[in-house]
Design brief:
Low-confidence stretches: none
Mean pLDDT: 77
Number of helices: 2
Distance between the termini: 15 Å
Largest sheet: 4 strands, antiparallel
Radius of gyration: 22 Å
Number of strands: 4
Strand content: 25-35%
Oligomer: single chain
């Protein structure tokens, strides 16, 4: 039995000219936000042999547009009055549920790139099995 896993890894960096370096990556090792670079790794895990095989890595790049969005969001949060007593809690009466938009974050974009690679690999495996194997395996994606 094989599993496909995607994992995010933070590497702490202090250089000024490192490509993709950003200040706001959370490191679970340090239990805080660190300055560094982040990679998402795609691995194939052999459950029976208890081994993991690295298939691909992608660096999460925070673009200038992302940095501007973060700055605007931070300024908006600071400028909003947190102690406004006139505003009632909850959703206003008569307001309907809104369709949520797909997140546009660097991590989500990188995740989609790796997911496309996974589906590409699964399609190639399926084609190989149908061509050369007598019985085919079914893929179950959760």
């Amino acid at each position: 039995m094989y599993l496909i896993a995607i994992d995010e890894t933070v590497i702490e960096k202090s250089g000024k000219h490192t490509h993709g370096k950003h200040r706001f990556f959370y490191s679970s090792v340090y239990q805080q936000v660190v300055s560094g670079i982040v990679f998402m790794a795609l691995s194939l895990i052999d459950v029976e042999k208890r081994k993991s095989y690295s298939i691909s890595q992608e660096q999460i790049i925070v673009s200038q547009a992302d940095k501007v969005k973060l700055r605007k969001k931070k300024e908006k949060k600071r400028s909003s009055t947190g102690g406004d007593k006139s505003k009632k809690r909850g959703r206003p009466k008569g307001r309907q549920n809104e369709v949520k938009t797909e997140p546009d974050t660097p991590a989500h974009r990188t995740f989609k790139i790796l997911l496309k690679k996974v589906f590409g690999i699964l399609i190639k495996i399926r084609a190989y099995e149908q061509k050369f194997c007598s019985k085919t395996l079914d893929f179950i994606l959760y």
